[in-house]
Amino acid sequence: MTPKNKNLLVGGLIIALILGVLSPFIASTNPDGLDTSADHLNPGALNNPGYYHAPFADYSVPMLGKSPLAGIAALIIGVLIALGFVYIVMAILKRRNRSDN
Amino acid sequence: MHIPDGFIPLWQCAIYWVIAIIFLIFAFRWGRKNLSEKNIPLMAVLAACLFIIMTINVPIPIGSSGHVVGAAMVAIIFMSPWAAVMVITLVLIIQGIFFGDGGITTMGANIINMGICGGFVGYYTFKTLYNPQMSEAGVLKGSGILGKRRLLSIGIASWVAIFLSAVLASIELWLAGTFPLRLGLEYMGGLHAAIGILEAVVTVIVIASLERVRPDLLAWNNRRNSKADNLESETTETISK
Predict the structure, then answer these.
(1) Pairwise CA distance, residues B132 & B112, whole Å
(2) How many domains does chain A have?
């Protein structure tokens, strides 16, 4: 990886992590557009328990309780997963392109 | 805009999944052909930043809130809607599986709304509004009235992308019997018209910043450079003949 691309990766990661730390404090707690619409048009739909329970549901690490730290930890985990997962998928795609050629 | 499980009947979810998978096959084919060494870290960074930006809900009137999606942003940066389909899908998979944001059964619908509709509408609206011939006349320097026109095109494209994604979601929810059509369109369309302003501002800021800091990451500059390279090599060939 070139130094320029390494800087991009590190710089982007730092920006994402800063936003992750700030997010629990700056994000609105109001329901989002879909939830607001459901609240007005079909409140019963919001009571559906769903088919699957995510390990960090509502962007929170359960073992850290309801503190802002639980949210920050979940978001940092998410940033690292997103960065790593997408990087690996794209690297595999590119490698397959090289092997095709 | 992440539709949770239970909002759409399973048989309709299956249809949305099939449509999403067909688009994903084409998107990954595009990725295999077009990804370069420097695109990989850019895509990873965009995914990480979009993941986090989607968690930052900004308050809007009537006690609601909204967040940026970023499909138009990715499509314009890479000048391809397929790039948006890939990145947004991977982010939605992570959000759904690890964080319960958006359902598993409804993920196909979410991919269609945010990734496919957002990416394609954003890209083609931008392409329609922004005349590429202007770029040949030095428009891409990012200053002056033509630079403003480009930024305006990016903003409008981002707004239209999120607005139509919300309209599509409300149609799906009407087909599912969850929302009535007219009120669903009014609520979802109205709320996301407001959220679209935020989407437009963030998209313009991100792309304008990239143009200033790393213009080589924007696909339109690479196309221009490759055109210039081709022209140069053709000229050299002609001279040598």
Answers:
(1) 28
(2) 1
